Amino acid sequence: MKPRISMITLGVNDLQRSIVFYEQGLDLPRMDSPPGVAFFTLNGTWLGLYGREALAEDASVSGESSGFAGFSLAHNVSSEQEVDQVMTQAASAGAVVTKPAQETDWGGYAGYFSDPDGYLWEVAHNPLFWVGPSDEPA
Q: Do 1 and 58 fall into the same domain?
């Protein structure tokens, strides 16, 4: 397998609510998508939103779950101020701040929020590991 992730698909309970959160609340660029799914372009990958039950059925697994899903998504930014800005934007869009942005024990600055379906996003500034627009492949 080649080392890349092409798409991250989140199974959501209310597709329209999640579209509004990601498109209008977080300003992610939405692609043309067929009914019942939404795609957003990210730098080097895509984010997909699909009905939770439909996604579980597609994967032949149970759609039931509770609590922590065992993973988080990360959004790395170029400064502590940008962490604060993204956290404020997410909260204004309806996210729940689960851990306010603060200095970390690994020398960075980070906080966590959860989207309308409880998916965790870490917003972080790591001065030793910044991946930004200038680092994208040509």
A: yes
